[in-house]
């Protein structure tokens, strides 16, 4: 643990932009769907810029999926996603119907233009390679441009590192502005708040302006757009019924849960039931390939929208408070990504549902007007009680246990706020930095079969029982 403390002490500041962290795109997985689509599109852009003599020799593209991308790629739609990217789609403008059409027509070929050259690609270009490999990230893919004799003309090794973020061999972070109030840990964030007298959302806003060059009104407008996508995903999920895609035969339950509890005689049950239904709604939309917001991932996309929707419609919080709460949630989520991880393939589901619950707790506490210490404590409680959570999707689908876990994460976030606001700040013993540090250590030592490969845990016991 002393090694981890030293790592935290020497961490550079968080430089992630809010709208890189929160992404709009089709489900069911940020690391297995959105990331591969971005990689496929990036590869297409790279080969389109190759010299004419290389392009003239191009005959085919081959994609090899490694690690958990190979193990659960079919259930997560990775093959369809990377192909969608290669033929020109980007996540934020790709309706779920594109991926569904590719799946429904597995033999279909698609023509892509490389200057004056045309080549065809299809699902048969996607190969499922070994789960165990030597690349630095579990979610790895090799995309290769080949000539007619299958000689390698150009190749990129991509890494889908969680939350829809991608990197590649030789990748360097994009040069842009630096945060005006730098922090790399929650302890440092408190120091900046004390030095400046700013609230948490104001500090995050000023950093975003400095990093991206966006104005305050532009940031607020983009936040409202993100929240509208979240609200819409709840509404769509509540209106849809039937079975989810795949062979598991999982039925949508969001609408039934809402109907069961919206007229319940017990006020507490009504609120909890509604939050559950909202989380189910978004998670079911994600599982069916619908458009959602990575918050921080697709697999955990139901937690924050569930609380946000309830805060707006059941707790009567105004849009400004919701926007400010979402900024506070971003601060927590970016710290988790910065100092541990948010990909199930890297740290287990503690980095997905656990981080989402922590972010949601921070959002609710801040939106209700509590100070930064209470916001931290709420976030810490929510994260602490997800530590060790494995990522073990049954059949490789983001359905069992993922959908129910989103509801549990939302309820835990609400309860974390109740606990944090009922205690004296001086009596709280565990910092958010300590919980993140624990998540990092647990994730690094977690067996790979519990990291999104569907090779252990519930994924195995459900099948065997």
UniProtKB/TrEMBL annotation:
Transmembrane segments: none annotated. Residues 18-169 form the Serine dehydratase beta chain domain. The keyword Chaperone does not apply. SUPFAM superfamilies: Serine metabolism enzymes domain (SSF143548). Pfam families: SDH_alpha, SDH_beta. It comes from the Bacteria. GO terms for molecular function: 4 iron, 4 sulfur cluster binding; L-serine ammonia-lyase activity; metal ion binding. Its EC number is 4.3.1.17. Keywords: 4Fe-4S, Gluconeogenesis, Iron, Iron-sulfur, Lyase, Metal-binding. It catalyses: L-serine = pyruvate + NH4(+). GO terms for biological process: gluconeogenesis. Pathway: Carbohydrate biosynthesis; gluconeogenesis. Belongs to the iron-sulfur dependent L-serine dehydratase family. NCBIfam families: sda_mono. This is L-serine dehydratase.
């Amino acid at each position: 643990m002393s090694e981890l403390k030293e790592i935290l002490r020497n961490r550079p500041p968080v430089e992630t932009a809010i709208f890189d962290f929160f992404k709009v795109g089709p489900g069911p997985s940020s690391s297995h769907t959105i990331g591969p689509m971005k990689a496929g599109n990036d590869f297409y852009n790279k080969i389109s810029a190759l010299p004419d003599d290389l392009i003239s020799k191009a005959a085919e593209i081959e994609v090899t999926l490694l690690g958990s991308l190979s193990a659960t790629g079919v259930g997560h739609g990775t093959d369809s996603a990377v192909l969608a990217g290669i033929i020109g789609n980007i996540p934020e403008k790709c309706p779920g119907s594109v991926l569904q059409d590719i799946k429904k027509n597995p033999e279909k070929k698609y023509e892509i233009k490389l200057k004056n050259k045309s080549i065809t690609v299809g699902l048969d270009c996607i190969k499922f390679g070994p789960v165990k490999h030597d690349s630095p990230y579990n979610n790895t893919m090799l995309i290769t441009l080949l000539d007619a004799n299958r000689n390698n003309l150009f190749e990129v090794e991509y890494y889908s590192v969680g939350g829809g973020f991608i990197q590649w061999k030789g990748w360097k972070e994009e040069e842009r502005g630096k945060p005006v109030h730098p922090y790399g840990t929650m302890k440092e964030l408190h120091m900046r708040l004390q030095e400046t007298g700013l609230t948490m959302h104001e500090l995050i806003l000023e950093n975003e302006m400095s990093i991206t060059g966006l104005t305050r009104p532009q940031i607020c407008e983009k936040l409202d757009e993100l929240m509208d996508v979240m609200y819409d995903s709840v509404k769509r999920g509540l209106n849809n019924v039937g079975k989810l895609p795949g062979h598991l035969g999982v039925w949508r339950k969001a609408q039934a849960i809402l109907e069961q509890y919206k007229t319940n005689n017990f006020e507490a049950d009504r609120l909890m039931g509604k939050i559950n239904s909202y989380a189910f709604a978004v998670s079911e939309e994600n599982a069916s390939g619908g458009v959602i917001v990575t918050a921080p991932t697709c697999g955990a996309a139901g937690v924050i929208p569930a609380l946000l929707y309830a805060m707006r419609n059941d707790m009567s919080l105004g849009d400004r408070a919701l926007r400010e709460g979402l900024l506070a949630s971003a601060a927590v989520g970016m710290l988790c990504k910065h100092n541990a991880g948010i990909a199930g393939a890297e740290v287990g589901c503690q980095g997905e549902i656990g981080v989402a619950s922590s972010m949601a707790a921070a959002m609710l506490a801040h939106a209700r007007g509590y100070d930064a210490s209470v916001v931290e404590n709420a976030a810490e409680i929510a994260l602490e009680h997800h530590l060790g959570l494995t990522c073990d999707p049954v059949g490789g689908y983001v359905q069992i246990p993922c959908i129910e876990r989103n509801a549990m994460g939302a309820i835990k976030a609400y309860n974390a706020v109740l606990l944090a606001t009922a205690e004296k700040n001086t009596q709280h013993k565990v910092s958010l930095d300590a919980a993140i540090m624990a998540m990092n250590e647990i994730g690094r030592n977690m067996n790979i079969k519990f990291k999104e490969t569907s090779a252990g845990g519930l994924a195995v016991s459900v099948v065997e029982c």
